[in-house]
Design goal:
The protein is α/β, with parallel strands linked by helices and 351 residues long. 31% of the residues lie in helices and 17% in strands. α3 packs across α4, α6 (161-171) crosses α9 and α7 (198-210) crosses α13. The longest helix is centred in the middle third of the chain and has 13 residues, at 198-210.
């Protein structure tokens, strides 16, 4: 079955139930669907953890929080109640695909090569692990069976005036007045890729602060110890120079507004990097040599950015990111990162 604009789908259910960064990279799918089928109802099936990313998004009409404890037949019953005529498994999971089949969803789209692909009637033959293109492009491949030919070319993540007000109210007591240029640095990550050490982040932040640049270090509530470790390494800075910190103090939309207001955002390969890219902030991203985490697939998308990777590695284990003797990320120098950040900063003399 192939829809055309003359026989548009009435309700499209899109499942992406993993991490925040992955869901952000799926937003162009929702945008493309709403652009192509403006009369269709678009529902997002997402993890409760990442739900805030899609709530209130203009391309999404309804949000369903996926409970992994829900049984197969219970999930199929819920799908039957939702009554979509299209199901797209962006993050393919057996229970969701089987539930869509049991619920009798007419069009079921997902990737091939998994055993439960048998229960899909449109199977896209891609090998994501080869990392031949960006994750956004892999995601957009899944809407092609619907006859779509025009695709979103940037991530739309709306920031409201209320979000910007909340961001200002958070930053001002921390010494960053409205209109003051600042750099946002997120030293944390979830472990799927290698990142710079806290010592390197501290050295870079100290260099920026001594140059007169305001810096805000951000982190989730679970990254408090890491942020504390970084700030403790900056004990030589005087009170006026010290960076501000924002750790678990706001939701994702306010955090997006904080990043939107920054002159530059710096981090490793993590979900917040994609959040900063989504709001159009120039991004400096540090990537490791592990093939599965290549920036070809996971780099910033749709914004101005600089991606830095270790160069001149001579150790074979370092080259694949699995060395127990060295930290391959040390091959990215503080000076190299500073130069990358500096090109996005205001050019009016002292910051």
């Amino acid at each position: 079955m192939r829809f055309s604009l003359e026989s548009s789908p009435k309700h499209i259910l899109v499942a992406r139930t993993d991490k925040i960064g992955d869901l952000l990279l799926t937003l162009p799918v929702f945008q493309t669907l709403k652009q192509s089928f403006p009369q269709a109802r678009v529902t997002a099936l997402v993890s409760a953890y990442a739900k805030e990313i899609v709530e209130g998004h203009p391309a999404i009409d309804a949000v369903e929080a996926f409970d992994p404890r829900m049984g197969l037949f219970e999930l199929a019953k819920r799908f039957k109640q939702l009554a979509p005529d299209v199901f797209i498994a962006v993050y393919p999971r057996a229970k969701q695909v089987l539930a869509a089949w049991l619920a009798g969803v007419p069009v079921r789209i997902g990737t091939a090569y998994r055993w439960y692909g048998y229960f899909l009637n449109h199977r896209i033959k891609v090998h994501r692990h080869l990392c031949e293109k960006h994750e956004v492009e892999y995601n957009l491949d899944l809407v092609k069976p619907l006859g779509v030919t025009q695709f979103a070319d940037k991530i739309q993540f709306p920031v409201t005036d209320a979000d910007r007000t909340a961001a200002r109210e958070l930053l001002q007591p921390k010494g960053i007045a409205p209109g003051t240029p600042y750099v946002a640095v997120h030293p944390g990550h979830k472990g799927s890729a290698l990142n710079w050490s806290p010592e390197r982040y501290a050295e870079l932040i100290g260099h920026l602060c001594r140059k007169g640049m305001k810096v805000i270090i951000t982190g989730g509530a679970d990254e408090k110890n890491l942020v504390t470790q970084v700030t403790h390494l900056l004990f030589e800075l005087d009170a006026a120079q010290k960076p501000a910190t924002l750790v678990g103090e706001c939701g994702l939309k306010t955090l997006a507004a904080v990043y939107e207001g920054a002159a530059c955002f710096l981090s490793g390969s993590t979900g917040t990097m994609h959040l900063a890219a989504a709001v159009g902030t120039p991004t400096v991203a540090l990537f490791c040599p592990i093939p599965a985490t290549t920036p070809v697939r996971w780099g910033p998308w749709g914004n101005e950015s600089t991606v830095l990777m270790p160069k001149g590695l001579k150790c074979g284990e370092c080259m694949v990111g699995h060395c127990k003797k060295h930290d391959p990320m040390d091959a990215i120098s503080v000076g190299e990162v500073f130069n990358a950040v500096e090109k996005y900063l205001p050019k009016s003399g002292k910051y």
